[in-house]
């Protein structure tokens, strides 16, 4: 039984891989793509989303959403280069509908209990949908979220991961909402870098050239600004939960979002004490089978 999903995204190189993986997985029906500013501006990420959909022949509605966080100015990423998808030339301009939150509400209400929201950018659209229609969280099947970090350092400040850092107020709304949340944090993403030799295994795939061109630029950008080796394919790892959940280990945690800290903006503060009252609100991914991910990633993107 294919699962119905909405992908809320800010493409972004790793978002691109996540969308490709989900579209080719055979495990999901993509009801819509909603876009949010983060890796680049709302216009750029929306154009990038259409570019990726066209590249894989994915006929899906794209609804643009928030051009800035709930309560702060937008801080964009730098690792994805200018336009947010360095390595390819995106010329087609996608219409900005500006109704992502409304469409999330509409699709969830039409499919009560069936929609998984795959959230791979700042959580502004999701928060707006939940604030606008408070019954929606109870009608969503689950959220699969790329974001946060439990013990690993932040990638946008000392303790904050980019998606949560950009819009901590939105993340607080989402993490406080009565809905099942699966969280893929930096801790897991840092353990599964992909290298050019991995991407070269896609040779023969119609996606080989664009992926090679994109990943070459992404690896350059992420190593320059985050001193990492290889491509951290954050969002593809989050998407993988919808492809092969058996390859993923979860741990229920009580996790809150820091919205006030001067140095700790966007920190995902897990209560890791082994004593005291806990109020678990998220299933954190604490393990991903690396060889299964790489095996499935290569075979699905080679199709
Ligand atoms: O911290 C990684 C996250 O920020 C990923 O979703 C990446 O695409 C960027 O949006
Ligand atoms: Ca992203």
For CATH, the homologous superfamily is named as Ribonucleoside hydrolase-like
CATH fold label? Inosine-uridine Nucleoside N-ribohydrolase, Chain A
Strand order of the largest sheet: 3-2-1-4-5-6-12-9
Give the helix proportion (percent range): 25-40%
Calculate the mean pLDDT score and round it.
97
Amount of beta strand: 15-25%
Quickly give the structural class.
alpha/beta
Distance between the termini: 21 Å
Write down the CATH class. Alpha Beta
What's the structural domain tally?
1
Q: Could you say which small molecules are bound to this protein?
A: alpha-D-ribofuranose, calcium ion
Based on the structure given, which CATH architecture is correct?
A: Alpha-Beta Complex
Largest sheet: 8 strands, mixed
**SS summary, helix count:** 12
Q: Which stretches are low in confidence, meaning pLDDT under 50 for 5 or more residues running?
A: none
Give a verbal description of the structure.
The chain has 303 residues and is of the alpha/beta class. It has a single domain (3-301), classed as Ribonucleoside hydrolase-like (Inosine-uridine Nucleoside N-ribohydrolase, Chain A). 38% of the residues lie in helices and 18% in strands. It contains twelve helices and twelve strands. The chain has helices at 13-25, 42-55, 100-110, 124-132, 136-139, 162-166, 168-176, 186-189, 196-199, 208-226, 234-243, 290-301; strands at residues 3-9, 28-35, 62-64, 115-119, 142-146, 181-184, 193-194, 231-232, 248-253, 255-257, 268-270, 282-288. The strands form three sheets. It has an eight-stranded mixed beta sheet, with helices on both faces. Strand 2, helix 2 and strand 3 form a beta-alpha-beta unit. The longest helix has 19 residues, at 208-226. The two termini are 21 Å apart. The model has no long low-confidence stretch (mean pLDDT 97). The structure holds alpha-D-ribofuranose and calcium ion. Alpha-D-ribofuranose binds next to helix 1, helix 6 and helix 11.
């Amino acid at each position: 039984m294919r699962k119905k999903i909405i992908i809320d995204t800010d493409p972004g190189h790793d978002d691109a891989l996540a969308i490709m993986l989900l579209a080719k997985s055979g495990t999901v029906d993509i009801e819509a793509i909603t876009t949010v500013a983060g890796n680049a501006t709302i216009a750029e990420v929306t154009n990038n989303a259409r570019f990726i959909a066209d590249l894989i022949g994915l006929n899906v509605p794209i609804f643009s959403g928030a051009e800035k966080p709930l309560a702060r100015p937008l801080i964009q990423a730098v690792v994805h280069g200018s336009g947010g998808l360095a390595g390819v030339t995106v010329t087609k301009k996608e219409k900005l509908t500006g109704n992502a939150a409304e469409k999330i509400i509409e699709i969830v209400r039409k499919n009560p209990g069936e929609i998984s929201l795959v959230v791979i950018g700042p959580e502004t659209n999701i928060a707006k949908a939940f604030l606008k229609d408070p019954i929606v969280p109870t009608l969503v099947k689950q959220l699969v979220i790329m974001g946060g970090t439990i013990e690993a350092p932040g990638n946008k400040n000392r303790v904050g991961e980019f998606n949560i850092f950009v819009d901590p107020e939105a993340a607080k709304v989402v993490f406080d909402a009565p809905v099942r949340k699966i969280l893929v944090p930096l801790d897991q993403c840092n353990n599964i870098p992909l290298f050019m030799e991995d991407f070269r295994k896609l040779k023969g795939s119609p996606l080989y050239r664009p992926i090679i061109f994109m990943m070459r630029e992404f690896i350059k950008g992420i190593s320059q600004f985050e001193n990492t080796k290889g491509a951290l394919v954050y969002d593809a790892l989050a998407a993988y939960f919808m492809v092969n959940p058996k390859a993923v280990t979860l741990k229920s945690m009580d996790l809150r979002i820091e919205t006030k800290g001067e140095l700790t903006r966007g920190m995902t503060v897990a209560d890791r004490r082994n004593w005291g009252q806990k109020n678990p609100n998220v299933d954190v991914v604490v393990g991903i089978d690396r060889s299964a991910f790489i095996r499935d990633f290569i075979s699905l993107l080679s199709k």
